[in-house]
Queue: 2 jobs
Job 1
Amino acid sequence: MRIQLTICFLLGLFLSGGSLQAQLHYRLKADFSIKETLSEGEVRLTTGVVSYDLSLNKLIYHIDFPEKTTIVIQDSLMQTLDSGGNLTEVLNQQDNRFSIFALSLQSQLADFGLKTVGFVLEEVTREGDSVISRWVPPTHLEKLMGPIILSHRKKVLEGVVFLRPDGSIRGKQFFRDYQQIDNLSFPAQLIQVSERDGSEQYKVTEFKNVVVNEQGNHEVYDFTILD
Amino acid sequence: MHLSSMDSKRLILAYIVACTMMLFSTVQLQADTPEGQSTASMFEFDETRMNDQLQPAVELESYLNDHPEVSMTHLEGQGFSAINKGFDNRTFSAGFDFDDMEWGAFAWGFCCWPVGFFTVAINDETTKDEKASYWIGVVVSAVVGGLAGGVGATVN
């Protein structure tokens, strides 16, 4: 009897753990600030609120500073509505599905979504506390992009190095200060480093007041700029 | 349990082979990194320089947190004008810049745009950077051609 109870308890524990792991995350909202260096030693600060809904694949930035602006990014379109009511539309070169928001919500940030797009894990090594993995692009992308190297510490993604096909470094990203919000692991700080004219340029994005799976408030996540 | 002389030799041989393979894999990985950098060093960057450069933005953010309703004119009066660069939507997009220039595609546009149109501009296998570089090449070619024509007409 005691053995049966123990088995039932362990089974229950296992199943509850499994259901927690499988919890669906579909929405994220956060206050953000972006500090970036520009050419000639200038810097820019941008702050506001960002929201993303996985099913709509719609990324919305409500910017407070330096001026009230709304940006809606969906599919191949990026719409910008400034405080004067002027609307500009440009081709979006990024896919929202590979944004930090989508990758985190789908628990794909650990491999940076590389497996999904056909990258192949070529090599894994351990260097100190970090596990370094090298991913090579699929054959049809080999001429366009080089390998991507990921660094993990304590099983969370810590850094990404993007290489060009010739092996030179195109850029780096670092994910720091991971927070656990409703069982979702989300980095509160993202550092992007790019090299230009022999010197490093920096862009630091920080997130605060992160809300996951907000119920209701649908208009925030499906905000539409009317033309 | 005692190992025979033969077993000891096999163990030592296996150890040497394992060490050699580990060494080879490390050397192989490092050889593929840019300019012989170790993989770990590729993740390094000058964090002190970054913090120094971004310090004015940190100070401004801190001031804004304490004074959320402050106007831009007020901020300029507080000496924050140096970082008042205004909004730029390139902050949120992967824009094309000089660093992304694909010179091969540029050359197609500059020197031989009709052929480049098929090999670059409408080729599904070329990147956005290559397409953008091609069109920049076409425009630069047209401008240079126009200037040369103008100079030639003036001389004649």
Job 2
Amino acid sequence: MDIEKFQYDNKIVRDFAIASVVFAVVGMLVGVVIALQLFIPEVNAGLQYITYGRIRPLHTNAVIFAFVGNAIFMGMYYSLQRVCKARMFSDLLSRIHFWGWQLIIVAAAISLPMGWTTSKEYAELEWPIDIAITLIWVVFAINVFGTIIKRREKHMYVAIWFYIATIVTVAVLHIVNSIGIPVSLTKSYSLYAGVQDALVQWWYGHNAVAFFLTTPYLGLMYYFLPKAANRPVYSYRLSIIHFWSLIFIYIWAGPHHLLYTALPDWAQSLGTVFSIMLIAPSWGGMINGLLTLRGAWDKVREEPVLKFMVVAVTAYGMATFEGPMLSLKNLNALAHYTDWIVSHVHVGALGWNGFLTFGILYWLIPRLYRTDLYSKKLAGWHFWLGTLGIVFYASSMYVAGLTQSLMWKEFTPMGMLQYPNFLETTLQIIPLHAIRAIGGIMYLTGALMMVYNLYKTAAAGTFVADEAAEAPALPKNTAESNETRHRWLERKPVQFAVLATVAILIGGIIEMIPTFLIKSNIPTIESVKPYTPLELQGRDIYIREGCNTCHSQMIRPFRSETERYGEYSKAGEFVYDHPFLWGSRRTGPDLHRIGGKYPHLWHYLHLENPRSMSPGSIMPPYPWLLTQDLDTSTTMAKIIAMQTLGVPYPKGFEHTANALLAKQADEITLDLQKNKVPAEPSKEVIALIAYLQRLGIDIKVAQP
Amino acid sequence: MISRILSSIDGISAYPIVSLAIFIPFFVIVTIWIIRLDKQYIQHMSELPLGHSTDEKKEER
């Protein structure tokens, strides 16, 4: 047998590791800032670019796509080369992937504070960046598949399966959810509206968790955990079941983000059933991970790498048990829109993704630099500080979520809301938000200790960019029968990718087709009309400021909600909402029936300084809305885009739209001026008020 | 309201049944496949990441 000599590319692994560590610190820092803003709104220093609504997406994007994303690539590029016994397919593609991804992150870091956002959670980036992501993802895919095809190991280790599923599914999710009609370089409208948009978004949102935060990390777990423990995975058979059942079931569970909303019941039930079924593969995976350490638990006591990994796998188990529980309608009724969900995702993000990444980094960096970890003791400190941080974070958010939810639902014996003022429930949980911020700071401090530790490790060692390795070549062209067999093997990753795609598509298609069929069947509520040009512009300001990060527009059919907000939301009310703005967390009250509830004056003063209307409010002031001119040059393009999407504006409306806009702005301004505020019709605030006053009133018109 | 709209879609009841019909055979097949997997293959696969020949650091120690 021929022994071939080759070299592993460690440089690309090192580069991604550095990027991951840098963006871990950045992402967590932004997280701490927004955590502080939730009880000290002044932290934004009066700057529109760093208000909560704009940088909360920055935090989520930085953590998911920059920190975790780079960590995935780091771990994949390391492990893939080794289980394939081959260097990456192309060094050039590796570099393009690396720099392209970092450029995308920079573009996100600029565009989100600027308010260029689609408003769809974890898919906020506007269309030019979306296209860049697609291209870089293709580069990445070619590089990975190329490596798998030229591998020297006959079989594909299970980690590779998880990587393949990740690559194909993320591509499908990203493209389907991001399709929209561009209005300008920085603005686009979602192809879907209302209920459909919500369904597509949460099919995406849920599976971004599944296929960006879970499957690639499971691949990493199946490689690095056995590696760190120096023993094979507990059951390889179980890992196969884990893989197929996980990717097959996960894709169906998205609708559990929309329980009790205007989403059709059957879709909600489908989401719940599949979420419960998910416990099985998830726990199968967790048990497989933990049992890999059987007989090695003594090592866990001394080895920080294993400590981090054990907590990571445990956090995975906890989060994947909690998730299905939260998908039960009765529990979801309590937890949705509250901090409970925030707690849930952070058990996953801080525990599973964060700790597994830290474990891998502590294992990997000394190996890349041919030395020992600078300080095991410091890593131990990091472990305990991080763990305590998670405990502080998760527990305070549980209590906050439960407290607020119960307060929302509390009635007096007379049948009135016990806490009719939403703000009361917010103020009640402020101490818990402070504890959460402390937890976050502890976690960040631990991460900073890691940066120091890894830096010292790297400084003490010598980096080997190209690691020499050797492996026998796979038998080629030896005999006719062998050749067919080999060719079949070569095609295997491709066949495999096709199989995985089919598995995920079945769920997605069955979930979505009926909802798309509704479009032609839904009796549009006759009184629901498209937004006026001014309202449309106002809606885009609402999106730009990220109002939907704190305010929902979806009243669930509970008495506690209809008493507080008004008539529950109907599917037919959202048919012109490109994109939907249902929101997922009520830091402030729901706004779906805000229209007509207060006079224009109230909104004007409230936006200028929320505390003037609601003393103690944690909403930041938006004084710039009062001074910035509304950009009406976009009105025509926006109306045309909406017409393309099927919104029934009359023919030629785009030409008269701005005149209509000015007329409505004048009316609102006149009303404000009567009330002695120096309002001007050209300012952004007028458009936003017009939009807010329109919200949810269409069906009121219909009612006698 | 919604359920009425949905029931007006032709063959909507087929969806949950189709889901189940795809699902159960899929898992039966996967399970049978896994039970029948070759022991040597399993052994080889589970030891794959440990591949000692490439872990030079360990040999150095």
